[in-house]
């Protein structure tokens, strides 16, 4: 549920606050006093014209001048900061159609965080300079944009216990230091990202929040499956604070095409060493120009290494119309501890091959909506994190609900750059996959995806394609339609590469190791459809076909899907993969029959043969009386059939699915091979058939099933 706060009410509330405490000083965080003889905004003598700026005027703060904002400004047509503009420690509002900073704009600093309320309002009221874009805050040249607000605690945390539908109490894992009257958003912990809820805080006592209205949905607040490996899968809902002391906001208007256009901010390297941004404890709201390229709430635009030292920390970006934060061809930028909620298109957007050497750590994103006016075609299925160059550090971030993907790696085909660091990230409640890569990179050495958590995604927890080497280690997934989908594609490399020795074997690999994979957990979600109510839990696929696809009906809950290889699964634990057969006489749908298995070949049509050297070793399948886990199921191929769109396809590739059980963890026979009923495989007498698996397995060496 999204509750968009009316702009007029927000502004009036802040204006009322300003009138009460204008000019007061804080005993808790004293600010430096302006030097003797300082120039103040309210003093006519501080301005070359000898007059204080009036409504609609365009004004310039000359280079070499430091001006202190001591009163809220009139609504200006524009402000050109060639010198320096510093906010005093007062509740202040700066209003202008446009602001250009080639000098310095400062609201607080790390040595004295701003502890009052400051707001920059970008408007669309005047036209005093036709050469400047309305509703814009642009920092260029060697400009410095510094906004550091005093924070009350973490920008986001997690629930400590499940918050039930109808309750108005949230128990958090830490005492956040937030205050009554502020607004929080609670992430969905089901398949539907729209179960995120925005609420106003009524009271805070330690780590317990009381909110203004009952919850419309249950939000999970515990780990699941801890009995299986002692750790389990953390499915606790994130709770984020949207309010900050410093606010930058736009004035949304709707154009003739139906696009919502609001303010935007940009750092742009016009010349020299480039601008610098230090943003902390800032709230960016109602910003971005829908469907307009490069008009985003926070935008680092082609700064190169000049962005070194720039950072965005503990900021809130919400109710925006075109992304949240964009890094374009910029290096050495740090994004840390931010919250982005209710945005259109890709949320955290790392654009271009030249965006590298950046750090994204502990950022939260949720509520990414599809674009009606997409900049990229993929904006119609947006990702919370859209990333191009792997040469970045991406750690402990959370993609907590999108109408598309959690993390989308749009890496180049042939790119040999591995991830600098990709670990500790979480993806849940996404309409497609939690982690998704489908552009055939060739990482050397291997890319490592470590300590990932992925749950309640309608398609896959992790969908990875690679032409090089990929390793996924210590990952934890649960409650997805499919846990892991690997497409390493085996024999992949250009013939020209063999002469150079770059790929002497020509084999791409994907290895999953030391991971916990759960089919269905105790987090049953919010059943709504007839079938879900009978099943007693929400289901990832509500339709006959996967969203936005022409695939056959969903009929399997799986842990790992084997596609073209070479694929290996090592030392993993699988739990709660079982069949489900439901008769639904009160529903319009037919009887619901779903297979469940830890291991499975690719689930839809594919003509591709798989690598017979695909293997498993060291796997555990939990079966303890209460838990049932089917180790493997090989779907019977349909053959040639028509998709709903009329295209004729063939899924014969899965008829050749073969993988090796190196240590007997599946069959009990070390060195055995598992394969479907296929006349071309010609099973010998040294085989057995398991009807539950719909699979043969050899009782001799791996070569036994294959006729010469």
What does it look like?
The chain has about 700 residues and is mainly beta. It is built from four helices and 62 strands. The protein has a 20-stranded mixed β-sheet, with no helix packed on it. A 16-stranded mixed β-sheet has the order 2-4-7-10-23-26-29-32-35-38-41-44-47-50-54-53. A hairpin with a 4-residue loop joins strand 61 (about 685-690) and strand 62. The radius of gyration is 28 Å and the shape is elongated. The protein starts with 6 loop residues before the first helix and ends in a 10-residue tail after the last strand. Mean pLDDT is about 90; it is low at about 1-30, about 545-550 and about 705-708.
Structure described in brief:
This protein has 708 residues and is mainly beta. The longest helix is centred in the first third of the chain and has 15 residues, at 7-21.
């Amino acid at each position: 549920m999204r509750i968009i706060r009316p702009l007029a009410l927000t502004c009036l509330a802040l204006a009322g606050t300003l009138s009460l405490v204008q000019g007061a000083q804080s005993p808790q965080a004293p600010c430096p006093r302006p030097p003797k003889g300082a120039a103040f905004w309210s003093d006519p003598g501080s301005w070359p014209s000898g007059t204080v700026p009036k409504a609609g005027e365009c004004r310039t703060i000359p280079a070499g001048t430091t001006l202190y904002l001591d009163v809220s400004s009139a609504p200006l047509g524009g402000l050109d900061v060639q010198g320096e503009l510093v906010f005093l420690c007062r509740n202040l509002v700066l209003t202008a159609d446009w602001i250009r900073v080639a000098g310095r704009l400062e609201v607080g600093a790390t040595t004295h965080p701003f502890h009052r309320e400051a707001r920059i309002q970008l408007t669309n009221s005047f036209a005093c300079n036709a050469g400047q874009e309305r509703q814009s805050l642009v920092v260029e040249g060697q400009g410095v944009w510094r906004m550091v607000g005093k924070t009350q605690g973490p920008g986001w945390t997690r629930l400590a216990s499940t918050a039930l539908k109808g309750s108005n109490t949230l128990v958090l894992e830490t005492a956040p230091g937030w205050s009554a009257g502020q607004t929080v958003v609670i992430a969905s912990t089901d398949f539907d990202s729209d179960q995120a809820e925005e609420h106003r805080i009524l009271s805070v006592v330690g780590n317990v929040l009381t909110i203004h209205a009952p919850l419309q949905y249950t939000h999970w607040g515990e780990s699941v499956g801890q009995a299986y490996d002692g750790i389990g899968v953390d499915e606790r809902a994130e709770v984020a604070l949207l309010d900050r002391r410093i606010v930058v906001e736009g004035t949304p208007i709707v154009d003739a095409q139906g696009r919502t256009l609001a303010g935007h901010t940009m750092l742009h390297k016009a010349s020299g060493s480039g601008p610098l941004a230090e943003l902390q404890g800032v709230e960016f709201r109602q910003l971005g120009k829908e469907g307009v390229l490069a008009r985003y709430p926070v935008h680092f635009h082609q700064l190169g290494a000049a962005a070194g030292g720039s950072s965005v920390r503990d900021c809130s970006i919400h109710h925006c119309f075109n992304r949240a934060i964009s890094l374009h061809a910029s290096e050495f930028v740090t994004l840390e501890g931010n919250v982005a909620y209710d945005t259109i298109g890709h949320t955290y957007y790392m654009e271009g091959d030249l965006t590298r050497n950046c750090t994204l750590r502990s950022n939260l994103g949720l509520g990414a909506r599809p674009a009606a006016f997409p900049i990229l075609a993929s904006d119609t299925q947006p990702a919370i994190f859209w990333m191009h160059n792997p040469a970045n550090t991406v750690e402990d971030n959370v993609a907590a609900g999108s109408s598309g993907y959690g993390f989308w790696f749009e890496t180049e085909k042939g790119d040999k750059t591995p991830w600098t660091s990709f670990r500790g990230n979480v993806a849940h409640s996404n309409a497609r996959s939690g982690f998704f890569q489908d552009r055939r990179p060739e990482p050397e050495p291997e890319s490592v995806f470590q300590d990932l958590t992925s749950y309640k995604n309608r398609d896959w927890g992790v969908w990875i394609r690679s032409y090089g080497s990929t390793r996924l280690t210590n990952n934890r997934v649960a409650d997805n339609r499919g846990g892991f989908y690997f497409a390493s594609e085996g024999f992949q490399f250009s013939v020209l590469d063999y002469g150079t020795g770059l790929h002497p074997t020509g084999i791409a690999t994907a290895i999953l190791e030391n991971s916990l994979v759960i089919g269905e957990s105790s987090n049953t979600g919010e059943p709504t459809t007839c079938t879900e109510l009978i099943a007693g839990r929400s289901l990832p696929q509500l339709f006959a076909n996967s969203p936005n696809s022409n695939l056959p009906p969903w009929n399997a809950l799986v842990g790992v899907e084997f596609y073209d290889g070479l694929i290996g699964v090592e030392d993993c634990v699988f739990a709660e993969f079982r069949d489900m057969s439901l008769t639904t006489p009160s529903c319009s749908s037919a009887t619901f029959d779903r297979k469940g298995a830890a291991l499975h070949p690719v689930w839809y049509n594919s003509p591709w043969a798989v690598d017979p050297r695909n293997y498993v070793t060291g796997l555990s399948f939990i079966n303890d009386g209460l838990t049932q886990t089917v180790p493997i199921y090989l779907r019977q191929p349909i053959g040639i059939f028509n998709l709903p769109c009329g295209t004729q396809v063939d899924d014969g590739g899965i008829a050749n699915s073969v993988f090796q059980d190196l240590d007997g963890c599946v069959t009990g026979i070390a060195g055995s091979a598992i394969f479907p009923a296929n006349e071309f495989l010609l099973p010998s007498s040294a085989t057995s058939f398991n009807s539950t698996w719909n699979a043969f397995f050899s009782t001799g060496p791996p070569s036994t099933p294959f006729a010469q």
